[in-house]
Design goal:
Elements: H1 24-45, H2 52-82, H3 87-116, H4 119-128, H5 133-142, H6 149-157, H7 159-162, H8 164-176, E1 182-184, E2 187-189, H9 193-198, H10 206-222, H11 224-244, H12 250-256, H13 262-291, H14 315-326, H15 331-342, E3 346-347, E4 359-361, E5 369-371, H16 378-400, H17 415-430, H18 435-472, H19 479-494, H20 521-540, H21 542-554, H22 560-566, H23 575-603
Parallel strand pairs: 3-5
Antiparallel strand pairs: 1-2, 4-5
Function: Has oligopeptidase activity and degrades a variety of small bioactive peptides.
GO molecular function, one term: metal ion binding
InterPro entries: M3B_PepF_4, OligopepF_N_dom, OligoPept_F_C, Pept_M3A_M3B, Pept_M3A_M3B_dom, Peptidase_M3B
């Protein structure tokens, strides 16, 4: 069960990066092509963007450079993600970051000159080209926050330095941390980030689960001060940038590109912290009763409700679940799903140095790539469906939108992914009336879909908000402060029903999302939308599916509010969120009832 070196994993369980570059020499040739294109772009256009016509001419060349860079950046990133400990990958990543910093500085004049054009010329250019309308609209929106061209050039030159905290975080987490084996029941068991998050955290054996928890968090504790300092540097960089660009707060700066106001952000956190908490405490009590746990602790919250019923699923067997559950999305979507397996879009392997969790990378002009560490549990199928939701989103958006129009606001990014989780659950519920099976499916929805997105990530968001409030007040953070803030959020949400034992406060060290702006809260925002739309699909069928496909194809051409409205959801009110919270409560009530039925049938 211990993680193996990357060189020992099966080829069929890895992604095929040759679709990005057939060889390392092809990648190096692309870097030369980028250098040449950037140089020629600067020579041709610097100081010459004077009206709408010259702006559009430059934009076409700028977009072509962007499309050269995207596959190269994806290639570097994916290689690092598959094995952070590989020194060649580290050096390649550093070299690429250096090239991007230099190229960004060389081309920084472009957006500065666009921003200096009269508003009338920018609007004229928007009217003349749909492909660049959104990009130019954002130039207009950001115009008040643009700095002097020379300052912009300096900031661009420092971009790789500004990215350094995230790189340091990953190296500390995935390279320097070596987790010792732990003992339970007289046996020794290996531990690692992926093993803990993919296996031990949900192990039904309380002694083993808690022993793994202690060993895992004891190791995190050894690195808490370095990790906290790394995070503080990232936070201070964001605060300085927000101040330089004239934003009133870090929140305003980070929400600006999401096209979301503070009201939508705060509502998502406040309502869930206050109104979802009672439902989740009831769920924790149900877990405690079913497993006969004397004292419910933070280490026990992810234990499955019925672990003896958890089916083991191979990668090959996952195909039927994925194809059957998501076929409702139509033939084109189903073809994409098939291609993802046939063409090795997904990296399933478990190996040393691999990034934790799961993600989908969707480079424009190439197919999506998915990272997951397959453990063989049914949860993996839900995770894969989630990431294929991202893939399906950009697969559709890229087919119908230009490179600058394809990516939607971060606020909306998790709606298509969580939608697929809902479709998977709805499909499974249709396949059987057996109370135990239904309980297992609903427990999967609660534990995987809603716990992960509405609780885990939302508690991250509540903690993150407290961190940024300190930063806005001119303060800094260290391990002690971060531990105190995280513990406070956990204790407020779980109340007296769950003991937040020593180590739980270090959970802030596990999540890379903190280096990605105000990202954690968007999971619950996306799931709020997808919950409402999945109900429409259940009730209305094809018309609702067609509406949703139109949303996916729209990419970034509309705001989150407009995209949700296209799907029939009004997120300008709290009604969708309150309805989703009530739905979660009804699922937990149903779990309680099904548990009684299962117990009765077992006795009979």
């Amino acid at each position: 069960m211990s993680a193996i070196p990357r060189s020992d994993v099966k080829l069929e369980e890895t992604w095929n990066l040759k679709d990005l570059f057939a060889s390392e020499s092809d990648y190096e040739a692309r870097l030369d092509e980028i250098r040449k294109a950037v140089s020629e772009f600067s020579e041709q256009f610097q100081g010459k963007i004077t009206d709408s016509a010259s702006a559009l001419e430059a934009l076409k060349e700028y977009a072509s450079i962007y499309e050269l860079i995207i596959p190269a950046g994806t290639y570097v990133s994916l290689l690092q993600s598959e094995d952070q400990a590989n020194s060649d990958h580290q050096m390649r990543g550093a070299a690429f970051s250096s090239l991007m910093a230099k190229s960004s500085a060389e081309m920084s004049f472009f957006e500065s000159e666009l921003s200096q054009l009269p508003v009338e010329e920018l609007k004229k250019a928007m009217e003349q080209s749909e492909d660049f309308r959104i990009y130019l609209r954002d130039i207009l929106r950001f115009k008040p926050h643009k700095l002097h061209p020379e300052v912009e050039k300096v900031l661009a030159a420092f971009s790789s330095v500004f990215d350094a905290p995230y790189e340091l975080y990953n190296v500390t987490k995935l390279v320097d941390m070596n987790f010792p084996a732990f003992e339970a029941g007289g046996e020794q068991f290996p531990n690692s980030y992926n093993l803990f998050e993919g296996t031990w955290e949900t192990d039904p054996d309380t002694e083993k689960r808690r022993a793994a928890y202690k060993a895992f968090y004891d190791k995190l504790a050894e690195y808490q001060h370095t990790t906290a300092k790394t995070y503080d540097i990232h936070l201070q960089t964001e605060k300085t940038t927000a101040d330089l660009r004239g934003f009133d707060t870090v929140f305003d700066y980070l929400l600006f590109n999401q096209e979301v106001d503070r009201e939508l952000y705060d509502r998502q956190i406040d309502l869930i912290m206050n109104e979802l908490a009672p439902h989740m405490r009831k769920y924790a009590k149900l877990l405690q009763d079913v497993h006969g746990i004397d004292r419910m602790t933070f280490a026990d919250l992810k234990v499955p409700l019925d672990p003896s019923y958890e089916p083991k699923i191979t990668i090959e067997e996952s195909k039927k679940y994925i194809f059957d559950a998501l076929s409702v999305m139509g033939d084109d979507y189903s073809e994409m799903l098939k291609r993802s397996y046939d063409e090795r879009w997904t990296d399933f392997a478990q190996n040393k140095g691999k990034s934790t969790g799961a993600f989908c990378s969707s480079p424009y002009g190439v197919h999506p790539y998915i990272l997951i560490s397959w453990s063989g549990s049914m949860e993996d199928v839900f995770v894969l469906a989630h990431e294929l939701g991202h893939a399906g989103h950009f697969y559709n958006a890229h087919k119908h939108q230009g490179v600058f129009n394809a990516r939607p606001s971060l606020y909306f990014i998790e709606a298509p992914s969580t939608m697929n989780e809902m479709l998977m659950a709805n499909h499974l519920l249709k396949t059987s009336d057996d109370p135990r099976f239904k309980r297992w499916v609903i427990a999967s929805i609660v534990a995987r879909t809603y716990y992960h997105n509405f609780v885990t990530h939302l508690l991250e968001a509540a903690y993150q908000r407290k961190v940024y409030e300190r930063i806005d007040a001119g303060q800094s953070v260290n391990a002690g402060v971060l531990n105190e803030l995280k513990r406070g959020v956990l204790e407020k949400f779980w109340g007296n029903e769950v003991t937040i034992e020593e180590g739980a406060e270090l959970t802030w060290m596990r999540q890379p999302h903190y280096y990605m702006g105000l990202y954690p809260y968007t999971y619950s925002a996306g799931l709020t939308i997808s919950t409402q739309v999945s109900k429409r699909i259940l009730d209305e069928g094809e018309p609702a599916v067609n509406d949703w496909l139109e949303v996916l194809r729209a990419g970034g051409t509309k705001s989150p509010v407009e995209l949700a409205k296209m799907a029939g959801v009004d997120i300008t009110t709290d009604a969708p969120l309150r309805d989703t919270i009530a739905y979660i409560g009804s699922l937990i009530d149903e779990l309680e009832q099904l548990t009684k039925e299962v117990a009765s049938s077992t006795k009979a």
